[in-house]
Amino acid sequence: MMPPLLLSCRLSWTWLVLFLAISPSIFHLCNSHYGDPRAEAKRRQLREEVRGMFYHAYNNYMMYAFPHDELKPLTKTFTDSLSELGNLKLERLPQNYNGSALTLIESLSSLVILGDNTEFERAVIWLSKNLSFDVDARINLFECNIRVLGGLVSAHILATDSANRLVQGSYQNQLLILAKDLGERFLPAFETPTGLPYAWINLKYGVLVNETTETSTSGCGTLILEMGALSRLTGDPRFESAALGALRKLWSMRSSLNLLGTTLNVETGEWIEYSSGIGAGVDSFYEYLVKAHILFGKEEYWRMFQSAYVGVQKYFRHGPWYHEADMRTGEATYWQLTSLQAFWPGLQVLVGDVDAANSSHREFVHVWEKYGVLPERYLLDHQIVHPTEKYYPLRPELAESTFYLYQATKDPWYIEVGESIVKSLNRHTKVRGGFASVRDVTTMQLEDHQHSFFLAETCKYLYLLFDDTFWVEHNYVFTTEGHPLPVLREWHDRLPEAYIPSNWTFIKDDRQASKASSMSLQLCPATILSAWRQAPRIESACHIPDSRMDHRCLTDEDCGVDSTSCRRRSCSTSGYCGSWLFL
Fold this sequence. Notes:
583 residues, alpha+beta, three-stranded antiparallel sheet
């Protein structure tokens, strides 16, 4: 492998999308196992196992729970889980029915990825005729946005793209019409003094009297993809404007360390919980900064993420682990792993920090192997499961990060990890009526609940790990609920053509330097250099250059952030910037 290289301080939309575009193709060259008939046969076998898992879950849902929200696989009954989010009623059904066919909505893009256009068309037509949001229902804005709005917007795009998945004339934008109706019912939630949305809203009557003013960072910062896409599709700017306004306000509330808390008051704009990390309540805020930059091309999103990422690496990271810390001081508060944190390595892959992604991912895999699944909380300081949060609700985050790391490296070890996940799910959670959540990972006692995200995300990412056909010809961003949105030139406010020269780090070579992502050089430099015949410039998410090109300094303020450790560099007594404190 090539020795560590200096990385530049910026990562552009162009090269993020370059990674998305080349990851299924040029990186195939990076590992000798790719093209091995036995390895390919193994991937096909695992792909079919995952296909069987999806349809076991989907068919049991359709048989025992549809058109209610989610399946109870042990008793082969149903739960209207959106009763916690609000009861979305379907037309032409009994008045006391409170389901929303949530699992069907969540399964739409998975059906497309599995190549089942017939079932996709049936589902689209059924939802077009039956789903209505004109109901007296109190819903959670965050959950309804990522699950329902995201599912509808993504399915509309898949129904109208060039693949001709639906019978001509059978689809007249019905899902987009439903999505716009739902988006309009979201808008009253943003009518606060701060522009930060209420966590809960009634679909028929708006914000109720005495509604709670408390929400989470994720609740305010995980709206821009779905609502932004809705604006681009409909030409109505209100949705993206509301989501962007909330995101900007949220960012303005960060501490001097560029950290945010976990919960806040939407009316006063004051923090309630100052401790935070990269897990529950905050996780998708970071995710959406990166993905919004890819999807919409705004440099503003990237600048936010870069600052936030440096803060995370400096104050939350401890070796391969990430603990929680006080946003005001950076002092550690809780030393715990949460299962939602397992998305982080996948996000790091998108920004080119692959070494750090691999390091953290392996620790999550070790915990998975220790228990057979990933517990909701794991106490790092005691190396035990949290005494009250021992459950595993079929979450997708580890499979998601495994998929991204395999796409980046083509290392067959990630296929082995995926195989281990598949075997564990089938061994511990598969029942005759579907797949059940685990109530206690220490005893493998099951819980009678098959969450919709098992079909929307868990099965999807495992399938894509073993078969990237859907991914290979297109650029997609997956929402936090696993719904694909295409990267389209016409959705971009601005496509950067070049960057400020001082922001580039050059590798000296007699030949002309070429633009390349840090992904491409770090992972397979010999292949990339041979293919491109040019020495690339490298980018990094956390690198901030020293103020002077000769690295001279008077104080620590003249020094930047190291590209590999993401630690602040300091000024030595001889007047040069470096990582002197960590030598």
